[in-house]
Specification:
flat; 4-stranded antiparallel beta sheet; alpha+beta
């Protein structure tokens, strides 16, 4: 049975990501972020304990009471910033969570004490959603209570083994995969005008053509992520345009995975990516063609992305399950076009019917798509395969 991982946009763990290995230095450094936030909270004023326990029901209330400023990111589908104003509406149930994965919100909150922006702390939170996609307020209260209980053990101590174990056992904490961690790290460093990682110079040299294209083995994913998070610097856009035709498979695929989270892709770079996707598909390099389509997931030149997707609908990719999962996991916004949405479901039902229940369930949970997906159920003009897939969906029968 095929296993879907919509957070990574792959149909199974065996799907090749082509990802360069993340170094232990970067991995350990990022892992420490999951723990370091508690060190700051422990130094908060003692009187917050009772006040928070009694009055704080939302995450932003908690942070503001602790005199912190913050930014919110989604880490479920893509690494994407959520405005503070929107998140406050989300946590008060005035808005559903926009990017659900399996009835959960995967959130990164980076925060800092007012006047000390240089030092940031991070929460990686996996918060449950109800059937309509709203954040469960009781889960927020439970998380806050757990933090307060941890603080109460020793409000002035350094992070010790007991507190680390307490944090690790918190059911709302999750650890993103290496790719997401590298991309998130690169994104927040660029957003707060902080230096890139120590792996950036080597990546810059490689993608600028200063080294041999086959000498990519020493590159780390963190350096590639830094390049894509800094497209407006060091001539990186043009360097990537020049590099694309020359890249071996692994650095090409890693670059594509990092680009799919970036909205600063220029029209010229988007055009170059789409052109290479066509070339790769003609060469029957389906994995590359899929990842290059995904690379445009956040690009503002939506006309280029849509044109490429429409071309791929007329290709052999309609027989590739990873293509469907990639579209649902990364390019769901393209399916706001009801013609493309219908085409997606028709193709899915005719060529990969076993995926239909899972992808239908995933897409109908996305607030921007819910009404349009449900409308597909009422269409009278549909193929026998789509009618059968819908019937199975409602009967709960597994093929």
């Amino acid at each position: 049975m095929l296993c879907l991982d919509l957070a990574s946009g792959r149909a199974s763990e065996s799907a090749s990501s082509g990802s360069l290995g993340i170094t232990s230095e970067i991995s350990n450094g990022i892992n420490s972020c999951i723990l370091r936030w508690l060190g700051y909270i422990i130094t908060a004023r003692y009187e917050l304990q009772n006040k928070i326990a009694m009055n704080m029901n939302t995450l932003t209330d908690f942070l503001q009471e602790s005199q912190c400023q913050f930014r919110i990111y989604d880490l479920g589908r893509k690494v994407a910033k959520i405005s503070n104003s929107d998140f406050k509406k989300i946590e008060h149930n005035d808005l559903p969570y926009p990017y659900p994965i399996q009835q959960h919100a995967f959130i990164a909150i980076t925060f800092w004490q007012v006047g000390k922006q240089q030092e940031h702390f991070i929460w990686f939170l996996r918060m449950p959603l109800d059937e309509q996609g709203f954040l469960k307020i009781t889960a927020q209260s439970s998380f806050i209570k757990m933090v307060v209980e941890a603080m109460g053990k020793d409000l002035t101590a350094e992070i010790g083994k007991e507190l680390q174990e307490s944090l690790a056992s918190n059911p709302f904490i999750f650890k993103p995969n290496a790719e997401k961690l590298a991309i998130f790290n690169a994104s927040i460093n660029a957003a707060f005008i902080r230096p890139a990682s120590s792996f950036y110079p080597a990546a810059l040299n490689y993608f600028s053509g200063a080294t041999n294209w086959n000498e990519w083995q020493e590159l780390g994913i963190q350096g590639v992520a830094d390049i894509t998070a800094r497209l407006a610097y060091d001539n990186n856009q043009q360097n990537l345009i020049n590099a694309l035709p020359h890249l071996p498979q692994q650095p090409l695929q890693t670059l594509a995975l990092c680009l799919e989270h970036q909205d600063q892709i220029s029209t010229e770079l988007a055009t170059a990516i789409a052109k290479l996707a066509d070339i790769e598909l003609q060469a029957n390099h389906q994995g590359n063609a899929i990842l290059l389509l995904r690379a445009l997931a956040s690009a503002r030149a939506v006309g280029i992305t849509k044109a490429l997707l429409e071309k791929q609908f007329s290709s052999e990719l309609i027989y590739n399950e990873h293509w469907y999962v990639g579209i649902a996991g990364r390019l769901w916004n393209m399916l706001e076009d009801e013609t493309l949405l219908n085409r997606f479901f028709e193709s899915l039902a005719n060529h990969h019917a076993s995926l239909f229940p899972q992808l239908f369930t995933d897409l109908v949970a996305i607030p921007a798509l819910r009404d349009k997906v449900l409308k597909q159920l009422r269409l009278s003009a549909r193929s026998p395969a789509l009618s059968e897939a819908i019937g199975i969906l409602f009967s709960g029968v597994n093929k």
